């Protein structure tokens, strides 16, 4: 499971690549309601695998090349599956990179699918803002071709100047949250940033609010990451509670089970059965 994001206070690009797991919002949303910028329009392009999307009364299975624009991200429920699942999702504040979306709109990339996939893969591999912005500008131009409400944009205008403290916090969060097996704690952020735990709580909350990430403070960020990753990992063929609990940094399989139960989520053994049932 990998997710890369190009973030800006007024828009965000998510590039997702999952292998041999199923990520189903129906497992999470009843227990982990969405936070962040839930009233923004969002475009989702399926590059590999398949996905079920529900938005109010709209429901459709999507295959590679399908593109859907919906007016409000907060209403979307997704199920992502396949031996390889690859997608790109763009959300934005109307008036920045694009206008408002009034109703769900569907389209096809067709001949542009290989190029959009290449751009997404390359964006995920770079840590240079200028390169990512240039690739994103190319992607926006291709997506406009199918009718997405994006505007022409110079790559330089897609880069946000941010304070050095925010950049350092972002790097520190990446360093800690990508190693869940090490049982990251707020003291690990303190070691990287030299900021008191109380101040770190405020900084992480403000960071998540600025960029519309689906969590609040440090503890909520860590808990949600563990639960979302853990529930998704349990859908893999042959997944065992012991191995997943270890990968998430829980002290024992029992601790993992207690965390799921406290959040109102299914037990590890029930997750794969429920995912099969929700197809």
Describe the secondary-structure layout.
Layout: E1 2-8, E2 11-19, E3 23-24, H1 25-28, E4 42-55, E5 58-62, E6 66-70, E7 76-92, E8 105-108, H2 113-125, H3 129-144, H4 164-177, H5 186-193, H6 197-211, H7 218-233, H8 241-248, H9 253-262, H10 268-277
Antiparallel strand pairs: 1-2, 2-7, 3-7, 4-5, 4-6, 4-7, 6-8
Helix pairs in contact: 2-3, 4-5, 8-9
Molecular structure report:
The chain folds into two domains: 2-158, Jelly Rolls, CATH 2.60.120; 162-279, Homeodomain-like (Arc Repressor Mutant, subunit A). Helices cover 41% and strands 23% of the residues. β1 (2-8) and β2 (11-19) form a beta hairpin. The longest helix is centred in the middle third of the chain and has 16 residues, at 129-144. Strands 1, 2, 3, 4, 5, 6, 7 and 8 form an eight-stranded antiparallel sheet that branches. The chain is an alpha+beta fold and 279 residues long. The chain contains ten helices and eight strands. The chain is globular, with a radius of gyration of 19 Å.
């Amino acid at each position: 499971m990998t997710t890369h994001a190009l973030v800006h206070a007024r828009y965000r690009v998510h590039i997702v690549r999952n292998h041999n797991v199923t990520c189903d919002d129906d497992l999470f949303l009843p227990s982990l309601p969405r936070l962040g910028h839930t009233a923004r329009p969002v475009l989702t392009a399926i590059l590999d695998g398949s996905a079920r999307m529900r938005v109010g009364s709209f429901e459709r299975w999507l295959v590679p090349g399908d593109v859907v624009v919906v007016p409000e991200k907060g209403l979307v429920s997704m199920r992502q599956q396949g031996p390889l699942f690859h997608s790109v999702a763009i959300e934005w504040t109307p008036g920045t990179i694009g206008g408002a979306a009034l109703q769900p709109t569907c389209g096809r990339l067709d001949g542009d699918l290989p190029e959009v996939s290449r751009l997404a893969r390359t964006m995920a591999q770079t840590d240079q803002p200028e390169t990512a912005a240039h690739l994103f500008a190319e992607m926006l131009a291709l997506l406009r071709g199918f009718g997405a409400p994006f505007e022409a944009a110079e790559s330089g205008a897609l880069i946000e100047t941010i304070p050095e403290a925010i950049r350092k916090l972002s790097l520190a969060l990446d360093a800690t949250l990508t190693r869940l097996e090490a049982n990251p704690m707020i003291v690990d952020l303190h070691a990287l940033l030299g900021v008191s735990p109380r101040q770190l709580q405020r900084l992480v909350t403000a960071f998540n609010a600025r960029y519309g990430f689906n969590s609040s403070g440090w503890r909520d960020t860590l808990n949600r990451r563990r639960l979302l990753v853990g529930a998704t990992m349990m859908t893999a063929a042959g997944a065992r509670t012991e191995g997943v609990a270890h990968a998430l940094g829980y002290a024992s399989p029992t601790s993992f089970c207690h965390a799921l139960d406290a959040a109102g989520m299914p037990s590890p053994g029930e997750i794969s059965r429920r995912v099969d049932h929700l197809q």
